[in-house]
Amino acid sequence: MTPRRLWRRASAIRNGRPVDARRRVARGARRIGFAYTAADGAESARRVEPYRQVLMRRRWYLLGWDLDRADWRTFRLDRVREPVPAGALFAPRPLPAETAYAYLRAEMTAPRHRVAVTVEAPADRVADRFKYDEQAVVEPLGEQRCRVVTRVDSFEWLVLVVGLLDVDFVVEEPRAFADRCRAMGGRLKRAGSGG
């Protein structure tokens, strides 16, 4: 495979055109490098063994093995810049999922925030309130106190669930959840005072 043919494939990745990874691997897959802009605006240089491009939610993603982070990563193709050949041929690694689509879907739907709170209430009462949360673990800390550890995508639901227990609680982590509780408390206080 000549560098020119590899460059056309890298350009296809940058422009969001799908590439069949199985055909590429059969011919011999090559590592690529590119500049990447994360969702928070952080810039980084990446070296990746590309596995497959995946279309999800009307966006193209590149799934590949990140050589510097020694782990699977997904990259939005519209945030990839300056793709270049970056090394020799590689043998594809086994993907930790049935398909590239299944891997990306699991990654995109996994709860992002770990939350831990200490609640001044019996564990069985709190566990009943969290019975529909498959992520929640309720640990007794005595007869009238327990710790709840869970994972959530957003804090709003959790603020309501814990708040409706109508008991005191302390946020252990993360600070962002404590900030959200404070903001909600301020709004409720203002509403109760008529302004």
From TrEMBL:
Pfam families: WYL
Highest taxon listed in the record's lineage: Bacteria
Domain annotation WYL: ranges: 27-82
Positions of transmembrane segments: none
Name by which UniProt lists this protein: WYL domain-containing protein
Native organism taxonomy: Bacteria, Bacillati, Actinomycetota, Actinomycetes, Kitasatosporales
